[in-house]
Amino acid sequence: MLSIVKGGSAYGARLITDEPYRRGQIIYHISGHRVTSQPTYQTIQIGPNLHIEELGVLAYLNHSCQPNTVVNTTDLSVVAARDIAVGDELNFFYPSTEWEMDRPFICLCGAPQCVRLVAGAKYLAIDTLSRYFVNQHIRDMVFASLAQTVSLDTER
Ligand SMILES: [Zn+2]
C-alpha cells in the first residue's frame, strides 16, 4: 500500500510505501487516467504531445535526482529502481518523462549529482540524462532536437 504523508518535506506531501520492494519489482500500475495534450504540474508525459492526468496517488510522487523508482510510460508502470524499505518515500526523476515542464523548480533533494534546475529533459545536458533511465519519447525528442541543431549548423 502507498500512503500520502503531508508535510515534512520541501515538496509538501510525500508518497510513502508500507511494503518493501526489490529492485525491478512493479510497485504500481497506472490506470483510470485521462489523456490530454496540455501539460500541467500534475501530468506525466507519455509521448511528444501526450500527457496523462488524474493519476491518483501518483500526484504525490515527488522528484529526486537520486530516484528509487522509474516511471515507465510504455507499460504505465512504476518500478523499483533499487531495493526500497518500508517507510521510504517514493520518487522519480521528472526529466525521465517530461520534456519541458509546466512548473520548473529548484531541486532540494540533496543528492551529490543533483541537477538543481528541474525544468524537463530539454534543459539538461545529454551527459546528465545518460546517467538515468529515460523514457523512449524523451530519447526521441533529444535526438530530434539534436538533428535540428545539426541542420541549423549546416545551413550557416
Ligand atoms: Zn536534485
Helices and strands in order:
Elements: E1 2-6, E2 13-17, E3 26-29, E4 34-36, E5 44-47, E6 50-53, E7 62-63, E8 69-72, E9 77-80, E10 91-92, E11 105-106, E12 117-118, H1 126-129, H2 136-155
Parallel strand pairs: 7-10
Antiparallel strand pairs: 1-2, 3-9, 4-6, 5-6, 8-9, 11-12
Bound molecules: zinc ion.
Zinc ion binds next to loops.
Q: Quaternary status of these chains?
A: single chain
Strand proportion: 25-35%
Rough shape? Answer: globular
CATH top level? Mainly Beta
Number of domains: 1
How many β-strand runs?
12
With strands numbered from the N-terminus, the spatial order across the biggest sheet is 3-9-8
Class from secondary-structure proportions:
alpha+beta
Q: In percent, how helical is the residue content?
A: 10-25%
CATH superfamily: SET domain
What is the count of helical runs?
Answer: 2
Describe this structure in words.
This protein is globular. It has a single domain (2-155), classed as Beta-clip-like, CATH 2.170.270.10. It has a three-stranded antiparallel sheet, with no helix packed on it. The protein is an alpha+beta fold. The protein has helices at 126-129, 136-155, and strands spanning 2-6, 13-17, 26-29, 34-36, 44-47, 50-53, 62-63, 69-72, 77-80, 91-92, 105-106, 117-118. It contains two helices and twelve strands; from the N terminus they run ββββββββββββαα. It binds zinc ion.
